[in-house]
Amino acid sequence: MEQDFREKQKKSYRMMRMIYDLSMAVFILGMAFILLLAEPLKIEQLMLVDPMFRYLMGSVSVLYGGFRLYRGIKRDY
Question: What is the mean pLDDT of the chain?
Answer without folding.
Answer: 92
